[in-house]
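Just scan my protein:

——
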Amino acid sequence: MTDQSFDLLVIGAGPGGYVAAIRAAQLGLNVACVERESALGGTCLRVGCIPSKAMLESSEIYHRTQHDLAQHGIRVESAGLDLETMLARKTETVSTLTGGVAGLFKKNKITRLEGHATFESARSVRIAKSDGTSSTVTADKILIATGSKVAPLRGVEFDGEHVVTSTEALEFSEVPEHLVVIGAGAIGLEMGSVWSRLGAKVTVLEYADRILVGMDTEIAKEAHKILAKQGLEFVLGARVTGARRDGDQCVVEMDGKDPIRCDKVLCAVGRIPNTDDLGLEAAGVELDERGRITTDEHFRTSAEGIFAIGDVIAGPMLAHKAEEEGVACVEFIATGYGHVNYDAIPAIVYTAPEVAAVGRTEEELKEAGVPYRKGVFHFLGNGRARAIAQAQGRVKILAHAETDRILGAHIVGPHAGDLIAEVAVAIEFGASSEDLARACHAHPTLSEAVKEAALAVDGRALHA
């Protein structure tokens, strides 16, 4: 029996889904959002972006208290770790934000439906609740925003306690003596940094010959050097063939290398689209060879009236990418117009220092045969970076050799994730490196390093 009908039904209440629902409601649509978890916000708010950043912040404060305060003339005899309180703060942060999303749903009169959604047809969705009951809703338009899940790795035997995903790695009840991280991407480096700062020996295994695959090589190499000096141990070219619990410890096996025994293993080799048990066949929604939902430039799937955004479609698996797609998608549904500039979507790794990027890498420009000029400025020459004793890293700006239009920017350094926003806006507006260089930047600020890198594109940095 059909219980309710809506203009738009959003499946998934992660950053893409809940933002799309809010924007659609603002545009006058009668909107419902179905989410199987009791808390709204998806992986990002519940067990991903937000809790990991809370732990990164707490662990960095602890580490700096132990190692960095003396240079500021601050004497601390000892700094103790209260991991239980640290985890409780993380949990409280998550609860506050997920509750905030619920408040936004109420404010915007969005109907919240709890349960697992399965297509019965292109217009009908059955919602199964945890108590065994179910109902059916219909909608004129349906938006799939179910996000992603942890990618498995052959031979890795997860047990949720010793061999874990990033979700469980946020909940260790004590600091492991030795943590092995499989994968040197953003998640692996961030979680490895957390537990290293809190006292664990951390070994990062990476199949490739470098860390942060996909980011600019020059910046990734510098990040590697900095993180290695902080104590992270890297083993590159490591093809992991197995990881399992062995008594009270774990053993990790690799091709051509000796096994590693450790206390915990975190597998962080990426994520895959979360399209299980959605009944996509019944709706006529097609997938590509990698299990992603195929869409056109307006997020329309192969089924009329069904759209998809975020981690379930092609592109970087980033919360803010999903948000932008959600807004563009529902604006297209409501007005016929909606667009995302994928060249202006930043990516950030929240280590210390942070690593951030937007636009094209130097390797991509070379491969495409695009003529470019490069400007680099090191934070060592930045007054604010020196004053806060965080002068590691650099800013790198890439501009077209003929038009001077900014094609990409890459930063490793203090607050790189905040600094990259300026260049993302510049790319969105089609700015040149000259535009960025001519804009007055307050002194002393870290953002002056961006201005200097823009000046360096033309060989006229002032403080280098």
About this structure: The first strand starts at residue 2 and ends at 11. Residues 163-269 form a domain with the FAD/NAD(P)-binding domain fold (CATH 3.50.50.60). The chain has three domains: 2-148+272-340, 163-269, 344-457. The mean pLDDT is 97.
